[in-house]
Amino acid sequence: MTSPARMLRRKNYNFIWCNAGALPPLFVKFQPDHLAGTNVLTRHAPGELWVGGTRFTESLLVPWVGEVLPWSPRTPQELTAGHFEALLALKPELVIFGSGARLQFVSPALLRSLIERRIGVETMDTAAACRTYNVLVAEGRKAVAALLLPQAPEMV
């Protein structure tokens, strides 16, 4: 008789179930570090974001394909409607807005240019935005991550 874990391995599921008593559970990453032709957020930490193998220390606009762009605001309080209008040139179907270390909503008036063009906008903290963006890009969606990266605290 074939064990459930072996059946799952044969079917190439993205997870492995193991109930073998003394063995620790096994975990598998849900997305690769690189998807051919797309931008993938591979790492985030206070004061830095990694797109593929490149480290960034500023807020970013990360389109599903093409060049990663610097984005001038570092906090939600610095945002203007013009910051979101700049996203229109990237022609996304969905914008994932990372508001920093904590979830902070912005005024809907700032998002008006996107909403009027029926471009979806989801707001979440930057770590969650990185994960969500990767899933959407892996599904082939035309997503742009607009990620605020507050200045990292200086080490004393």
Could you give the topology of this structure?
Elements: H1 4-10, E1 41-45, E2 48-51, E3 54-56, E4 60-63, E5 69-70, H2 81-85, E6 94-98, H3 112-116, E7 120-124, H4 126-138, E8 143-147
Parallel strand pairs: 6-7, 6-8
Antiparallel strand pairs: 1-2, 2-3, 4-5, 4-8
Q: Biggest sheet, in brief?
A: 5 strands, mixed
How many helices? The count is 4
What is the quaternary state of this protein?
single chain
N-to-C order of helices and strands: HEEEEEHEHEHE
Q: Return Rg in Å.
A: 19 Å
Mean pLDDT: 82
Provide the low-confidence segments as ranges: 6-18
Total strands: the figure is: 8
What is the beta-strand fraction? 15-25%
Report, as a whole number of angstroms, the end-to-end distance.
60 Å
The residue fraction in helices comes out at 10-25%
Shape: globular
Strand order of the largest sheet: 5-4-8-6-7
Content-based structural category? alpha/beta
